[in-house]
Hints:
Layout: E1 3-4, E2 13-17, H1 24-33, E3 45-48, E4 55-57, E5 62-65, E6 72-74, H2 75-78, E7 83-84, E8 96-99, E9 115-116, E10 123-124, E11 129-132, E12 137-140, H3 141-144, E13 150-151, E14 160-162, E15 167-170, E16 177-180, E17 182-185, E18 192-194, H4 195-198, E19 203-204, H5 207-210, E20 216-219, H6 224-229, E21 248-251, E22 256-259, H7 260-263, E23 291-293, H8 302-309, H9 323-329, E24 334-337, H10 340-345, E25 373-376, E26 383-385, E27 394-395, E28 406-409, E29 420-421, E30 428-429, E31 433-436, E32 441-444, E33 453-456, E34 459-468, E35 491-495, E36 500-503, H11 504-508, E37 513-516, E38 519-526, E39 552-555, E40 560-563, H12 577-581, E41 597-598, E42 608-612, E43 631-635, E44 641-643, H13 644-657, H14 667-677
Parallel strand pairs: 23-33
Antiparallel strand pairs: 1-2, 2-5, 3-4, 5-6, 7-8, 8-11, 9-10, 11-12, 13-14, 14-17, 15-16, 17-18, 19-20, 20-21, 21-22, 24-25, 25-26, 27-28, 28-31, 29-30, 31-32, 33-34, 34-35, 35-36, 37-38, 38-39, 39-40, 41-42, 42-43, 43-44
Helix pairs in contact: 13-14
Amino acid sequence: xxxxxxxxxxxxxKLVQLQPYHNEEEGEEEEEEExxxxxxxxxxxxxxxxxxxxxxYSFHLCYYTCKNCNYSxxxxxxxxxxxxxxxxxxxxxxxxxxxxxFQDRHPFFHSNQEWTCGxxxxxxxxxxxxxxxxxxxxxxIICATMSQQxxxxxxxxxxxxxxxxxxxxxxxACGCEHEGIFYHCTICYWFWxxxxxxxxxxKLLIQQPTNHSHPLTLTYSFPNIDQEAKFYPKCRIxxxxxxxxxxxxxxxxxxYYVHIHCASSKYIHxxxxxxxxxxxxxxxxxHSNLLYCPFPDESYNLLKHHFINNQKxxxxxxxxxxxxxxxxxxxHPLILLDSQTSxxxxxxxxxxxxxxxxxxxxxxxxxxxxxxxxxxxxHCGFVLHEWCARLPREIKDHPGHPYHTLFxxxxxxxxLSGVFGCKICMLPSxxxxxxxxxxxYYVDVNCAFLPxxxxxxxxxxxxxxxxxxxxxxxxxxxxxxxxxxxxxxxIAFFCPSCDFYLDTECAFMLPGLIRHKYDKHxxxxxxxxxxxxxxxxxxxxxxxxFNPEYWFYxxxxxxxxxxxxxxxxxxxxxxxxxxxxxxxxxxFLNVKFETTRLMVGGVHPHLLKLAQGxxxxxxCDECGENLQYRMIFECLECKFKLHYECxxxxxxxxxxxxxxxFARKIQTTSRQIKKHTYSALP
Length: 682
């Protein structure tokens, strides 16, 4: 073993060979074998050189150390001669001599006083220096050894040379502009990395500012093919994308990726959903009725919340003669079921998806899971939540239509079988609604009661304010942070401090917990990838792989996940529902299929039932196109099936002409009409 007797130390120093880096792939293989919970703060750091006072890193490949005491030297510092001749940074005719103490050359100079390096102009004291007795020139040991200061860095296949002067340049590691010391490749003239990036730790824990408990691993590129496989993730800190040639910190198991400069920033000013610990920006006493989202389960919704907190706005029925009940009494004589005995008397079972029991309110089309509620004494299956029976007759100054009063409508469009398109959530609805006949503006009863501001668990401690995205053109390309869909012609909620946006569907229609027949445990709404997830994410319903950067439902016990759009499909698990709609909400969430039946004169002699089109339904008997994923009418007695849109075309033509005819005779006409009417249909 090589030893060195150095003038600066009393003991002999031995040369230590550091483990060289081979390539990044080998490094990654070694990391996989290591315990993932092991945390190394400075993986490259070895110690400090006692001559130049700078750190020794594994990139230097070897160094000298004393086995008896804590004394170490860079190899280039230890081997530098006492006297230098022809140094490039000084007059070649002058020799410069090494000394540990500046006062050796200046006897009247106090030991605690500073002196200035003639090369870098840094102030020094008690520091090794080279001195020229001829011209009183002084140079610190760092500048004297500059040409020997090279590192073997795993990010590059050539040695990197330390730059002798501080400069301002773009760093090829992080892509940011830095001022200070750079290392550059003398062969690849374009490769420059700042000293801070070059000596970044291999593993880094950033739990304090960002809620991630695992150490992140430094990697020297993020290839596009890897980004594509991970659905092009964004930085968890600044929420922007990655360039393949810049360094990142990552935790692959958690799909947690951050820019190197974001991870190492001391002052993180960002406020992103679930990506940082943020300070509360409001006082509780100023917002006593603030709505906290997500709703706890499927039984809670906007209408119920408004009913609980604003009962004065709801009509209180006297006996069975409230405003809403009066209007329903002719067709549906209702009785209040408020006990287990009354449930048994009328053979009613509460909504329970695990037992495939479905009980949806005909007013809001949401599950009825508790008593009391109203039921029609007949056999039609008509049921109402207590609050849906007390709906106010009108709503003024609705944020989506402030110009006119919206009136309660129990059957908005009889021609369209009672199904209408809500102008807020853009979903079809078969329930009650509020509308303006003049402008043909309709909203379902949940979207009729939008709050001004909310709080959401995905963005804790910051208020989200209501905003009409349709009135701000710049928001047309702004994505919802929950589903990624652009905020086009909709009302949304946003945090002005953080540029965090939620559309109304994601804010109010995704409960925090759901039950599903595919899992015996409750499924939790997740806002980010799950820590230590064993593999890629696949929906248990449609079996498609999905991007966990957008919200999804997950069971941590069974390690099962579902699209938010697929999760409500509990009775008819239609494959690829999400892939077709590309939304976070199941398209027919607000449609109660089994209760709508009608006769279409001249088209079919039997009673037709409104249903969701599935693969087994085949083609439409009117236009010949597939019925899958669409609302359809199917015959209860034979195999006749009809698109919902085709049925509308028939009804519109019948009304316009006053005649009945077979749909197959107007196939060409119906297709032409559909082109003009389809965009307006739910």
